[in-house]
User: Fold this.
Amino acid sequence: MVLTLVGALGFSCEEAAQVTHLLIGTVKSRVCRARANLGENPLPNHEGTTLAILAHSVSFAAE
Assistant:
């Protein structure tokens, strides 16, 4: 969820922490871990690719 907020929706880590009621350090850690799980640069030079991956994962989780 925090990667979606920060990576896809453009929230700052501070804003994501407020929305999720998590500590800022927890948000930063989760964003870092999630990005590492996606790969450092999953598909370089393809704008919107990470957003497409995140959008797919969000829609999949909602099912």
Notes: Helices lie at 2-8, 13-20, 24-38, 49-62. Residues 59-63 have pLDDT under 50 and may be disordered. The radius of gyration is 12 Å.
